[in-house]
Structure formats: C-alpha cells, structure tokens
Specification:
The protein is an alpha+beta fold. The chain has seven helices and 19 strands.
C-alpha cells in the first residue's frame, strides 16, 4: 500500500463556483467545509486543522490509501476485516492513516447523551459521518458505510485511490478524479456538487441488497443484532457478509456501544450474474473479540466491477453473544 498526504487547493474562484452551483440544488447532503490553511511545519505530526463538519482532522486523517488494483484492495481487505478494533488501530497507526471507521468511533465516544437535543445536535454537526434511521418503528443512530468493509480503507473524507484514479464515495454514487485533479475531491461535500466540476467524473450508483437474514437478542435497553447480507456496492465488489453489532437504547434511540463479542456463524448462498448463470458459496466466521463497537466479516468476495443479477442465502446458522444479552441462536 502507498499512502499519500494531499494538500488542499487554494483556488477561491473554484470554491465559489461550486458554492453558487450548490444553491440551486433542492437538497444538499451536508454543509460546505471550511478550507484549512496549508501548514508548512511537516515535522509536527500533532498539528491539526479545523473542519466545521466533523471536528478536527490530523495529517493522518488526510492520508489516502492507494492500491494498485481492485484485486489488491480485496486481498488486503481479507486480512484487515479479521482484525479486532485494537489490532486495526495499531495497523492504522503504523501506516500513519486514520480510517472513516476509526473516526466515527472516536466521534461517537464524545457524544453527550444526557438529553435528546444533544443527540440530534451531534448528528447535525457530524452529518458527514452519522444519520438517524427508522427501522421497524425503532430509531437507530448509524454511521455511513456501516455495512461495508470500505469503512476500514476510506479516510475521513471518504476517499481512496485504486490504480491511477482517486475516488470519493457517497450514498448516491461515487466521484472519480485523476492524479492531477485529485484535490478537487476535498472541496466536494455532496454528490450533487460534483456535477458542476468539469474535472471530475461522477457515477450515480447505490448499494443493492439482494438478500438479508436478521436475528436479534434483546434484554431491556441492550440489543445484539446479527445481519447476514448479500449485496453489491457501487464500485469494487459484491459480497456475502455478516454484521454483528451491539446497541444500547438511550432516550429512545438505539446507539452502537462497546461490548465484548463472541460468535460462531456459518452461511451458504447462491448467486448469479445472469439469469442462467448460478454459482454457490459458503463460509464460516468465529470471533472472540475484545471490547468493540461490533464485528463484521465478508464471507466471500465475488467478481469486481460486475453487479449481481441475484443472490440468496440457502442457510444461515450459529450463535452470537455479549455479556449484556442472552445468546442469540439461529
């Protein structure tokens, strides 16, 4: 992996053009960030720069992971997704990189949960990272890319580099820039804004879930949620995965929390790229983690750059457990 530390462009005219264009949009995903001042003290790794949406960003948070190919990314993902939070943090620190996942974990630990207004203000002030979602009449505080391994490889600005291109990923799609135009990506705060920058290519796309099996164990205000999914992402991959996330209910909102997690889960599935092209897959995942905000495992990656036509679980089995709830058997 190669790591790049990217400086911001200082082109005020371009920023003004983007801002003016954004006014005509009916919806804007988030407020425009203030452009940080370039710092010439490269020896001070503790120097941080201000960012209005999401607190502060260190040099490590601006570093972009570079992979020679999508296959190289998936190969590294096979190792990184098996790490627990402590191991992954050490891996990031060793490589002077801070992932979107780590940034979200740090932010959520600063949240004031003493009143409902504080929680809503936290989501509003960190809208690049979090959102509220209603599922089965229950409200959850979720982070973006919560169910994608890309959260371990995107930086705080949702950026990654593969081959000779730089990508910035939003829920509506992704933006692509060349090496010489990569700095434009730092100025873009929403997918819509990219449509007004000639130097960028944009591709509307969304995550597609083909099958999902969800199991829960609840004890009062604590919940353990196990979700098996077969899905396609806008770029890079299709996969069968399992997410095991602990939640605590605060003021009516389910919020991810740190728990010690143990699990042994298995899955079998079928998938196809064309209507008559059927393949099978299977996988097993065992974990006995330290305290973490959850564990996620991709059982199998399928061909990159080609979305699935269908996917279906034929079997899901196993158990998952935390000290706060009864064992979740399925």
């Amino acid at each position: 992996i190669t790591f790049y530390n990217l400086d911001y462009m200082k082109n005020k005219l371009t920023l003004a053009t983007i801002a003016i264009s954004a006014v005509v949009l009916l919806t804007i995903q988030s407020c425009k960030k203030e452009e940080p001042e370039k710092n010439n003290s490269s020896n001070d790794s503790n120097i941080i720069e201000s960012n209005r949406s999401g607190g502060f960003h260190s040099y490590a948070e601006r570093n972009v992971l570079h992979f020679e190919s999508a296959e190289g990314l998936l190969s590294m993902a096979s190792s990184v997704i098996r790490m627990n939070d402590s191991e992954r943090t050490k891996w990031e620190e060793h490589n002077n990189f801070k992932s979107f996942y780590t940034k979200c974990n740090e932010l959520i630990e600063t949240m004031d949960t003493t009143n409902i207004n504080s929680i809503h203000n936290f989501v509003k002030n960190n809208s690049d990272y979090f959102y509220l979602s209603v599922q089965d009449n229950e409200t959850y505080l979720l982070s973006y890319f919560d169910e994608s391994f890309l959260r371990y490889f995107l930086n705080s600005y949702k950026m990654i580099s593969v081959a000779d291109r730089y990508y910035k990923i939003f829920k509506e799609g992704y933006i692509v820039a060349s090496e010489e135009d990569k700095d434009y990506l730092y100025m873009i705060d929403s997918f819509e804004q990219s449509m007004y920058v000639n130097e960028l290519d944009y591709y509307p796309a969304s995550r597609t879930v083909y099958d999902e099996e969800v199991y829960e164990s609840i004890d009062g205000k604590d919940k353990l949620k196990v979700a098996f999914k077969i899905e396609s992402h806008p770029i890079f991959y299709n996969c069968a995965l399992v997410n095991i996330y602990p939640y605590h209910k605060t003021l009516g909102i389910w919020i991810r929390c740190k728990r010690t997690i143990s699990a042994n889960v298995s899955a079998e599935w079928t998938y196809s790229y064309f209507s008559n092209d059927v393949h099978t897959g299977s996988g097993n995942f065992q974990v006995d983690s330290d305290k973490s905000f959850g564990v996620s495992y991709e059982f199998g990656f399928m061909t990159s750059f080609t979305n699935l036509n269908s996917g279906h679980f034929t079997s899901t089995s196993g158990w998952a457990d935390t000290p706060s709830v009864p064992t979740c058997n399925f």
